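re: that chain from earlier
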Amino acid sequence: MQTKILATLYRGGTSKGPLFLAEDLPKDRETLSRVLLAAMGSPHPRQVDGIGGAESLTSKIAILSTSNRPGVDVDFLFVQVNPNSPIVDFSSNCGNMLSAVGPFVVEKGLVKADPSGTTHINIYNFNTDSHLSVQIATPNGDVTYDGDTAIDGVPGTAAMVRENFAGTVGSKTKKLLPTGNRREEILGVEVTCIDVAVPTVLIPASAVGKTGTESKAELDADQALIARLNDIRIEAGKRMGMGDCTDFVVPKPLMLAAPSHGGTITSRDFVPFNCHATHSVTGAMALATACAMEGTVAQKISGTVQKGTVTIEHPSGVMDIEVDAGEKGDTFEVREAGLVRTCRKLFEGFVFVPRAVWDGSNRASSCDDIAAGLTS
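^ sequence. v structure.
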């Protein structure tokens, strides 16, 4: 006997994974974690006994429900399930999978499409206690996946999804600069700790013996580098007030260098035990903001970009972030931090998990219900 769970698999940005309605999942953390591990096939390097894609970028999950919060349409809980680990990580957000949220909630009836052609959706993210927004194409009041927008790391073109992360400053720490410093030394390396969309530690590549232009394969093979970056991020997490982050993907370490192909800055994003094949959206928001802030390690490399496009060069191409930020009196204000993504629905139906994992009882009613179970 197996328990069947409604699911829709999406390619969201340069990531991939299933989207669920909260009401179709268990509400207590222990059972939910077992269900998601079984659904994805973790822990196993090929996730052969589940629907995971055998790497962290294709083993992501989004859980949605209608929101009761003022000015918010839907609540969103992101979950990272890695192939080799039994740990289910509820600590971070994902801007790539966010691009699939809009089409999913419209097709599931949680949000009514705007027949004028563009539907604006306000989203609350539980992982970071922050507000996001997306705009999706809805010609004649229907979701479309066809379009002429291309993003590096994905073949072909699709309909445009606009994302805005301006409401994510202090996503986990409630502070733009959680340590109070624009630059500081951690384990002999000058870094910047910043929190926009995701807590991030920015690390100059030259300070860890790299050019910053290495390929993903080269960086993944350098286990000494990955261990050093991990040590830096764990210490950064403590300084940022996040406690021991050994078992979590945040804070996110980004390795930075000067651009090579006409961009603003080069970045290698670690997730955290291998290099991202492209770049996380959340990490890009933190990096773009740091490029607008005088005195950060990013600004020292990029120069100051307070309003306009920050083009981040990554292993598979570039990512353009629209930023409007700068000093306002004694504070630093982020007015806009957004970008364009695309998504595609791949299949919908049921994911099956063994009855011994979950018998279908004690279901959640909403993301609020699940979030309460995560902290109980």
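The chain has a mean pLDDT of 96.
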